[in-house]
Amino acid sequence: FTAVRYPYLKRGSYSFLSDRHLRFFQSILSPHQVLTDEFNDLSGYNVDWMCSVRGSSRLVLRPKTTEEVGAILQYCNAQNIAICPQGGNTGLVGGSVPVFDEVILSLGLMDAVISVDELSGIAIVQAGCVLEKLETVLHLNNLTLPLDLGAKGSCQIGGNVATNAGGIRLLRYGNLHGSVMGLTAVLANGQIMDCLSTNKKDNTGYDLKQLFIGSEGTLGVVTQVALHCPSKPTSVQVGFFGINSFDNVLETLRLSKQSLGEILSSCELIDQSSMECVTSQLKLKSPVNDFPFYILIETSGSNADHDAEKLNSLLETLLKNGTIMDGTLAADSTQATNLWALRERIAEALASEGYVYKYDVSVPIRQFYQLVDVMRAELGSLPIRCCGYGHLGDGNLHLNITSQEYNTVLLNKIEPFVYNWVSRQRGSVSAEHGVGLKKRDYIEYTKSPTSVYWMRRMKKLFDPNNILNPYKIFPGSLND
Ligand code: FAD
Ligand code: 2HG
Ligand code: ZN
C-alpha cells in the first residue's frame, strides 16, 4: 500500500538486487540467515504491525554477530544497496519496513543476554533481544527494566534504543538517553563504533552513543547495548480511578505526585471512548462504572505495607474530596495485570476495529485532552471513533481515530490540522514513536529548520550514500 498512499515517493538510484549480490551474502552467512522466499519468508518482514505500509524487499539478512553486520554494511555501501534495519517490527510510524526493495537487515538472531551485574545494575545485551526475555533474565538478578511497553513480547532492545522508546515507566526512570550507558553501532561503511561503555559517568568529550538513540536506523545499526537497570521493586501496587472531568484528572495527577512521591511509577489516562473500544473489542471488563475518564496509577517500592498505606490513603482522599467518583486497588498481581490490560491493549483493540490514524504527540499537560475535543468537533461523524489516552504523567497523548478502511478524505481532514495544532502549543509531533515514514513531512512543524538542517548534515556525514533506511525521518529526498 505504500506506493498508493505515498505516490510522491520515488525510488532512489540504488542497485537492484542481483544474483552476484546474493552469492556474496550466501558466502558470508549460513542458509538460514539469508531469506529469499517472497511468500513464505518475506511477507511478514515487508508489512508493519498496523498493516498500513508494505515494502517489496526480496531479501532478508539475519546476522548473528556485530562483525557479520559490519561485513554486510561494508558490501552494501560499496555496491550502493539500500538497507532497512528491522527489530521486532512493532514500530508505529512505518520506519521498520522497506518503502521499495531495500534489503531488510533483521536483528532477530542477535538475541543473547551477554552479562548482567546485580551490583552495578548493568546488563549487556545483543540488540535483537526481545524486551520481555530481557526482563525475565533481569528478574533472576533482582533487577528490572527501566522501560516497559505493550509491545514487550515482540519489540527488541535495539529497536527500543533506535526509537528512544518511552512507555509506561518513563515517569519514574526517565528515557533511554539516561539509561543507556553504552552501545555498539555499525556505521554505513561497515566500521564498528565501539561505545559499549558501562561507566555511569564519562565526560570525555562528545557522547556519540546519544546520536544513535532515536536515530531510527538512519545513522547506524545498533548491535549491542549496555543498559542501566534499577533494582526490582518488591512491592508493586495498582489503582484504577473513574473521573468525571478533565480538571479532576489534572487534580488527581497533582495529588498523586504529591502524596506518592518517589514510589509513583506510572500515571496513565484512558478516556471513555478508548475504554469502550478495549472492553467491547477484546471482551475485557472495567472494574468501575462508566466515566468520561479513567486513571491508572502504579507504585513501585520496597515496602508493601508502606506503599499500600500510601495508595489507600490517596484513594480515600480523592474519593472524599470528590476528585474521583469511583476507584479500586488491585488486591493481587492477577488483578493488577487485568487492570493494566485495559490500558496496554488499547492499541490492539483499535487495530481490530478497522484502519487506525495514529497520533503520538507531546502537549503541555493542561492542554492534554483539548486536542481530542477539537478533533472530534472537526471530524463530526466521519470516523468510527476519535479517542485519546496515554502517558498523562509525561504529557504524551495518544490520539487515535478509526474508520472502516483507509480513507483519504478523512486523512486530509486530520493532517496537517493535528500537527498545526500541536505546533501552536509548542509540543512535539512525535513524543515516543519516532518519525519514520509517516511523519517525515511534519518534522519541521515542531523542530526548527536549523535543527533539521544539522540533522541532515549529520546524516550525510555518517551515511554519505544514504543507504541506511532511506525515505525515513527527513522530508524530501536526501539523494538530490
Ligand atoms: P522496529 O519496529 O523493528 O523498528 C523501529 C525503528 O528502529 C525502525 O526505524 C528500524 O529501522 C529501527 N531499528 C530497529 N532495530 C534497530 C537496530 N538494532 N539498529 C538500528 N535501527 C534499528 N512505543 C513507545 O515508545 N512506547 C509505548 O508505550 C509503545 N507501546 C506500543 C504498544 C504496542 C502494542 C505496539 C505495537 C507498539 C508500541 N510502541 C510503543 C511502538 C514500538 O513498540 C516501539 O517503537 C519499539 O521501540 C520498536 O521496537 P522494535 O524492535 O519493534 O523496532
Ligand atoms: C501505548 O502507549 C503505545 O499504548 C501505543 O504507545 C499508542 O496506539 C497508540 O496510539
Ligand atoms: Zn505510548
Describe the structure.
There is one protein chain. This protein is α+β, with helices and mostly antiparallel strands and 480 residues long. Among the domains are: 113-228, Uridine Diphospho-n-acetylenolpyruvylglucosamine Reductase, domain 3 (2-Layer Sandwich); 235-346, Alpha-Beta Plaits; 353-447, 2-Layer Sandwich (Alpha-Beta Plaits). The chain is 35% helix and 20% strand. The protein is built from 19 helices and 16 strands. It has helices at residues 2-5, 19-28, 38-46, 66-79, 131-140, 157-163, 170-173, 176-179, 209-212, 246-260, 272-282, 304-320, 333-344, 346-351, 370-379, 408-414, 417-424, 443-446, 449-462, and strands at residues 34-35, 60-61, 83-86, 103-106, 113-117, 122-126, 180-186, 192-195, 221-228, 235-243, 264-271, 293-301, 326-329, 355-362, 385-391, 396-403. The strands form three sheets. The protein has a seven-stranded antiparallel sheet, with helices on both faces. A hairpin with a 4-residue loop joins strand 15 and strand 16 (396-403). Helix 10 (246-260) runs antiparallel to helix 12 (304-320). It is globular and about 75 Å long. The two termini are 25 Å apart. The mean pLDDT is 97. The structure holds flavin-adenine dinucleotide, (2R)-2-hydroxypentanedioic acid and zinc ion (ZN). Residues 390-391, 398, 432 line the site of zinc ion.
**Estimated radius of gyration:** 23 Å
* Biggest sheet statistics: 7 strands, antiparallel
N→C terminal distance: 25 Å
Number of helices, counting only DSSP H or I runs of 4 residues or more: 19
Unreliable sequence segments: none
Shape estimate: globular
> Mind telling me which CATH architecture of the domain at 113-228 this is?
2-Layer Sandwich
Mean pLDDT: 97
Helix content range of the residues, please? 25-40%
Number of strands: 16
CATH topology assignment of the domain at 113-228:
Uridine Diphospho-n-acetylenolpyruvylglucosamine Reductase, domain 3
**Strand composition percent:** 15-25%
Bound molecules: flavin-adenine dinucleotide, (2R)-2-hydroxypentanedioic acid, zinc ion
Structural class: alpha+beta
Strands side by side in the biggest sheet? 13-10-12-11-15-16-14
The level 1 CATH classification of the domain at 113-228 is Alpha Beta
